[in-house]
Amino acid sequence: MPQDMEKRANFGSKLGIILAAAGSAVGLGNVWRFPTEVGANGGAAFILIYVLCVLVLGVPLMVAEFIIGRHTHKNTADAYRQLAPGTAWVFQGYLGVFTSWFILCYYAVVAGWTLKYLMESALGEVAHISESTAYFEAFTSHPLIPLGYMAASMMMCHLVIVRGVQGGIERSSKLMMPMLLVIMFVLVATSVTMPGAESGVAFLLRPDFSKITADVVLSAMGQAFFSLSIAMGCLCTYASYFTDDAKLVKTAGSVALIDTLVAIMSGFVIFPAVFSVTGVAPDAGPGLVFITLPKVFQAAFTDVPWLGAAFAFMFYLLLFLAALTSMMSIHEPPTAFLIERFRISRHTATGIVTASVIAVGTLCSLSFGPLRDVRPLFGMTFFDFFDFVSAKIFLPVGGIIIALFTGWRLDRAIITAQLTNNGTQPVPEALLKAFVFFMKWVAPIAITLIFVYELR
Ligand code: TRP
Prior knowledge:
Layout: H1 3-6, H2 14-25, H3 28-40, H4 44-72, H5 76-83, H6 90-122, H7 132-141, H8 145-161, H9 165-192, H10 198-205, H11 214-228, H12 234-239, H13 248-276, H14 288-300, H15 305-342, H16 346-366, H17 382-409, H18 412-419, H19 429-455
Helix pairs in contact: 2-9, 2-13, 2-15, 3-11, 3-13, 3-15, 4-11, 4-13, 4-17, 4-18, 5-6, 6-8, 6-15, 6-16, 6-17, 7-14, 8-15, 8-16, 9-13, 9-15, 10-13, 11-19, 13-14, 14-15, 15-16, 16-17, 17-19
Bound molecules: tryptophan.
């Protein structure tokens, strides 16, 4: 019988818990998706709404997932089975496991791209790309090369997950997250001191409230959910490895703080640099970090090309580290489920998840090349379909169900015990009441409104 079955693994320290959860949250969502959204939605005003969504919706939902995970000490599917056996709530557990697997199938493709750019920048090549759009398209549409990079990034994730919770996830998070933060500070410092950076800084700091529309609010909430890794069992699974003395609200607050800081700092890395180079638009869309930035790296450092190369290398290293720690957290829910439900070894379970993700991820990757015109599902390519369904459907639906479950079904005694660490850290009764009320009414209604509006 596998070891995990007798004594379930857990994280070794509070710092490890925070860094692992922050590693899950800080990902492509922060460094790649956030700047894209900020650029498309008008800068500072979007950031304000985003921060509001994180505080008002994100943190409470994260706490709810922590409660469910740490109380049951089980993988997401079995957690709901234990808390509400024989009811329809069990569906949420399976949805979490499935959504994780589903997201990984396309997340791994983009992680592969970051690995490719990391390799190229390590060789100093990014500085020599003359036609960055053509370069990006030639790479992503190649029938084999992107597959290799996707598989390689999945293998790195595999090697961590196979080593388990403390030896794999916690150890690598403790190594990679501080590295990521240091790189981030160096990049911000370089970027804001570039000539002409002021307009980029102003873009990020001076809100133009006329830009706020319903669409902007929706995008901000979607981005907050995605960036905080909530609503799909990821943090619930990590919380099942939390120790009893970890403080759930404080942990959620720290994770949200780190995640938001990294997102905003990414803005400060990218926009001052983008604005300092004339002729480059801030709303370049998803190609921003792969197409626009290589141009910026060259143009901004024409006098000192080695500095441009170093900047590029550090940027893609940051992007890859962020992607890898998030991939780990998306890999773990299905892996933990397979281990605990089917009583197979961690080795086998990790292998099944990795292999199946590479297989299906291949379809997503090929939809930029040979399968570009294959649109079996609602006129979308495989990649777009996976992205759309998970971010726009599974995440909001999961968020609504988690809130309803916590508000209406979950035993108040469990909530109280988890939030007070079994009574050792008292929390004002009013706060507990407010939390339950929020989960019963506010969160489900808010998310439903946004969800329905978005699909209309
Ligand atoms: N939050 C990660 C990012 O910003 C991605 C991620 C990890 C995620 N786990 C998740 C997104 C769960 C949604 C749900 O890139």
